[in-house]
Known about the structure:
The complex is a heterodimer.
Chain A: H1 2-26, H2 59-95, H3 98-110, H4 115-126, H5 130-156, H6 160-167, H7 172-180, H8 185-208, H9 220-227, H10 236-263
Chain B: H1 2-29, H2 34-39, H3 45-55, H4 61-73, H5 87-122, H6 127-140, H7 144-158, H8 174-208, H9 211-218, H10 223-260, H11 266-275, H12 279-307
Amino acid sequence: MFNRFNQRVGISLTVFIVLLAVIGSLYTPYDPVAQNLAEILQPPSASHWFGTDQYGRDVFSRALSSAGDSLMISVLSVAIATGLGSVTGAVCGFFGNWVDRLVMMLMDAYMAFPSLLLALAITTMIGPRRYGVVIALGLTYLPTVVRVVRSVVLSLREKEFVEASYALGNTSAYTIFRHILPNCIGPVLMIASSLMATALLTESALSFLGLGIPPPAATWGGMLAESKLFVGTAIWLAVFPGLAIIITLLGFNLLGDALRDRFDPRMNL
Amino acid sequence: MIAFVLRRLTLAVPSLLVAAVTIFVLMRVVPGDPALLFIGDLENQQAITEMRERLGLGKPLAQQFLVWLEQMARGDLGSSIATGEPVSRLLLDAFPITAQVVLIATAVTSLLAIPGGILAAWRQNTKTDAAILTGASLSQSIPGFWMALALILVFGVELGWLPTVGHVSFADSPHGWLRHLLLPVAALVLTQISTLTRMTRSSTIEVLRLDYITHARAKGLTEAAVLYRHALRNAFAPVLTVLGLMLGHLLGGVVVIETMFALPGLGRLLVDAIFQRDYPVIQGCMLFIAVIYTVVNLLVDLLYPLFDPRVRLE
């Protein structure tokens, strides 16, 4: 009962946010970066639903326009991590030779950094660019995917269908891509959806620290960082971007839980 | 036991080495002359030449790495560009503050999350369970910095009960120390609590299905004794893993919290260094955190058999 309700909430929230992101990239009521010094720090009203910030920019337009960026960064970085990670994990798990041991040692070592710090270090080196964040996050989550896929493949490779594939004269590469990888889709989807939430959270933390997408482009984290100065006087500056992050994360997390229930019913997390 | 500890230690070495290589490569990938980056003063030609010498920039890359590694291993992390202070000094000053916040937050989180998770498992599929799970989902979806902002707004600005910035050492004033740590710790606890609660719940649910629990109940033990003496003991091992991972996460997550509350800890040191392009400090912080993270994971691995004797020391 409770699970089904959560699933519906998760799916609805995710669809809602994706719709908003699409709308936000096509249309916003005001220009999200245009300053209007005649209307600074206005509380929410009929003309400015979420109020305005210290430069008179419309908070609603800014929040709407950054939905697309935030989702795009999460999707692209998770795509990099799952794409590279699945293939690496599958190859490692399938052959299980010295390459596997070497790669796993590298991945373990990578995990010797807390993920936010790793992302922080990589973005510092690449510089604060839009795609810098994507690459940094993608690389940061790579080890997680590699580990999960590898452990799944370790048990898959003992299955009869692998033997059958060889018996039909297929090569190892064909077997991995045609038979092993499609069987990993469940766990990969599960990990991808939870990574989406983590990536979004990390992206907003990076922007909050001033190391994400460079200003004046709006990001939820960046908007929150600016709101810090007005926390006692203009509370709407902190409330709305924060709610946007929370709703999106809640959607992704509940969706992830639903997928986990679907693909791995034994895990009662 | 000693053999296991030694073997586990030798496993930690390659992982630290790779971490060191990563940091070294990252510092060399930055466009520009590394010596200049480490001195930060275009005019001071002599210092730059000395730094080139020190970094061994004329030599092959592998040799440069060895020179660098030897310096790091000796604790010679260079000096900050911004203040000229030795990096090791800065790290040792900042670390106790981070350690305090992280350890207190971990302890408070465990005290709340483990009983919470057990309660949810015991009352599985009831309203209590649903309430705890919903709370966990919510807390998982709230970014730490937003939680910090909310806490600052409510307790610092509106109610004016607690200070929102800075740190007071315990020796100076225990009362001030507590007041300055309350909000940062609360922000960390509220954002970290969900994973541990969920893990405890799922792990306890697994155990509660087992026959020996039925047996414990049948012999007339109270529910509390069944849960805490029988179920928790068996369910604790995965919880311990999550606890170890959480400590690592906290070391990262504390960056944001320290920035918010102006706590002069490791994370704050790192972020300030990043903004000032203070490369020796960035490098020192990264290396230091990697070492601590590895040590924490090592300790968790060593503690594991204590809580789960089925895990053999192999």
